[in-house]
Design a protein that fits this description.
This protein is an alpha/beta fold. Helices cover 41% and strands 14% of the residues. Strands 2-9-8-7-6-3-4-5 form an 8-stranded mixed β-sheet, sandwiched between helices. A 4-stranded antiparallel β-sheet has the order 10-11-14-13.
Length: 434
């Protein structure tokens, strides 16, 4: 074309979590049975939505109003409900006007990063959930600025590294926190969070905190919502119903703005996000109408508790299967439903393989691993998929140099889940010794 039409950040938009599906589907066509451990969709993994939850949604679907537009910020009654729930904790206070609904957190993330000034950066964790890191990098047209999560210390943020990334990079305007974390499954103690907020305060930054998994915490771990400790620091907290209920197909998420009027620049930035949403008119009405009744239903807490208990049990099964495997670093998952495994430095090379019985599958895997710039962990992921049918995501796709992979804890059948991780452990051993 006579002029370049490609956005400066287009090359930063990657999502290996779904890209690996294309490989898995190709192998299924060649006769492989695939175990999809790549994507965090509880419904796709067999989560049964309770009848009472379906009835609430069905009742609202019978109302004409749920088929129409809602206010741009979201339904007032729902925003008032959320603000009341937040304020009951006694931390930083918000009103209904401090809440903006989006079509899922993916939409929120796109707006939050997309309407930053091009030269303003948000430092993101490494590893980092791809939607965040890709959106931040795409808005700037450059590689993401990152701070380390330490696999040798429960995947906790390295606060010294975080401060250095900010101190020596004046373009950094904000800090991204994901708690509980995706992809690592870490849950940050209050002391860590207070340290991050203190850094933001000292360097005059704002905070973005993704708390979509905030109510899915187990193994005796505790954390606090950002609102408890944010003080006077400007912040955006992201929440949604896609994982907790779970209702990912609802595409229903929101941001809560704290201290939105205490900094004029931050206030203008938040207004730009709202104006961007106004251009779209509004977000989906039905899930917003349903949300208060779903959360306050007498069975909701029991339903959520049952799921959390299962994730805790499965996190320990996975950890027990993998903890004694030589050559990897494994942390017990304590929140959300992901586990990230890291290969120790130097144990991977470009000659390792796994035996693949199906000749067509073997040929396809060998074709894939021979492609230029295939990372060592992606090579392992391809061989694991071809040899066992287990589909996971290479860790290097999460904005990190660490070699490893992320798996989910979502398989509902306990015997099948145990078999998956036992097979995974055996495959790692065989691959590293090949």
């Amino acid at each position: 074309m006579r002029t370049d039409i490609v956005h400066i950040g287009a090359g930063e938009l990657t999502y290996e979590i779904r890209n690996i599906v294309n490989v898995g589907m190709k192998l299924q066509e060649l006769g492989m049975k695939t175990h999809w451990e790549n994507i965090g969709d509880p419904v796709a993994k067999g989560e049964k939505i309770p009848v009472w939850m379906k009835e609430i949604v069905a009742d609202f679907a019978m109302e004409d109003a749920t088929y129409g537009y809602c206010p741009t910020r979201g339904i007032l009654e729902t925003r008032e409900f959320i603000a009341e729930q937040t304020n009951l904790r006694g931390g930083a206070q918000i009103t209904a006007d401090d809440i903006i609904f989006f079509n899922g957190l993916g939409d929120a993330i796109s707006k939050v990063f997309g309407f930053l000034r091009r030269t303003a950066r948000v430092v993101v964790p490494t590893p980092s959930y791809t939607t965040h890191s890709s959106a931040e990098a795409a808005h700037a047209g450059a590689m993401p600025v990152t701070y380390k999560l330490d696999p040798a210390n429960n995947w906790y943020p390295d606060l010294d590294d975080l401060e250095k990334r900010i101190k020596y990079n004046p373009a950094v305007a904000g800090i991204l926190i994901i708690n509980p974390d995706n992809p690592t499954g870490a849950v940050y103690p209050e002391s860590i969070l207070r340290g991050m907020v203190d850094i933001a305060r000292r360097y005059d930054l704002f905070v973005i905190c993704d708390e979509v998994y905030h109510h899915i915490v187990y193994n005796g771990k505790k954390t606090v919502p950002l609102s408890d400790i944010i003080g006077e620091v400007p912040a955006l907290v992201m929440r949604g119903i896609s994982k907790e209920m779970p209702w990912p197909g609802s595409r229903c998420g929101w941001i809560e703005v704290f201290n939105g009027h205490k900094d004029i620049m931050f206030e203008k930035y938040v207004a730009s996000i709202l104006n961007a949403k106004m251009v779209e008119v509004c977000s989906t009405t039905l899930p917003q109408k349903s949300l208060p009744q779903l959360i306050t239903h007498p069975e909701y807490e029991n339903y959520l508790a049952e799921r959390i208990e299962r994730y805790e049990k499965y996190s320990n099964i996975a950890y027990e299967c993998l903890k004694k495997v030589d050559g990897i670093v494994v942390n017990r998952t304590n929140g959300a439903f992901y586990m990230s495994i890291v290969f120790k430095e130097g144990v991977l090379n470009h000659t390792q393989t796994l035996e693949i019985e199906n000749k067509e599958v073997k040929a396809e895997i060998e074709r894939l691993v021979s492609q230029p710039n295939t990372s060592l962990d992606k090579r392992f992921v391809y061989y694991l998929l071809g040899a066992t049918g287990i589909c996971v995501v290479p860790l290097t796709s999460f904005a990190t140099d660490l070699q490893g992979f992320r798996s989910t804890l979502l398989e509902r059948n306990e015997d099948a889940f145990r078999k998956i991780f036992e097979t995974m452990a055996e495959a790692i051993g065989q691959y590293l010794s090949s």
